[in-house]
Design goal:
Blueprint lengths: L1 E4 L17 H4 L2 H7 E9 L3 E8 L4 E8 L7 E4 L2 E4 H8 L8 E5 L6
Antiparallel strand pairs: 1-4, 1-7, 2-3, 3-4, 5-6
């Protein structure tokens, strides 16, 4: 599950790399729901569903992409976490103008 924010809404207080936290935290659905509020569906595609959301700590509007593990065609790693190749590539392109800002990701049982 990736959490991003629209590029045009960048602010200096937001880091351009995913939040640093340990792997067990990233697998905790309670941690995710405490940090983010999931809203309505923005769109659906072949790999998953994108929802509107809000980061609870500062009411930052975010997009939350939920991807079913069975739909991921290629895998890679970010630190020790096994992630989709899409997420890995997005993390590598954070300094490219026009690329959405990845602020967090979670690896949950249902995604």
């Amino acid at each position: 599950m990736g959490v991003t924010k629209p590029h045009e809404q960048q602010s200096p207080s937001i880091t351009s790399s995913p939040t640093k936290c340990n792997s067990s935290y990233r697998r905790d659905k309670t941690a995710f729901t405490q940090r983010y509020r999931v809203g309505t569906i923005l769109g659906k595609g072949g790999f998953g569903v994108v929802y509107a959301g809000v980061r609870r700590s500062d009411n930052l509007p975010v997009a939350i992409k939920h991807v079913a593990k069975k739909r991921v065609p290629e895998w890679s790693k970010i630190a020790q976490d096994k992630v989709s190749m899409e997420l890995k590539l997005l993390s590598l392109l954070q300094n490219v103008p026009g690329v959405i800002n990845l602020i967090d990701y979670y690896i949950l049982n249902d995604s």
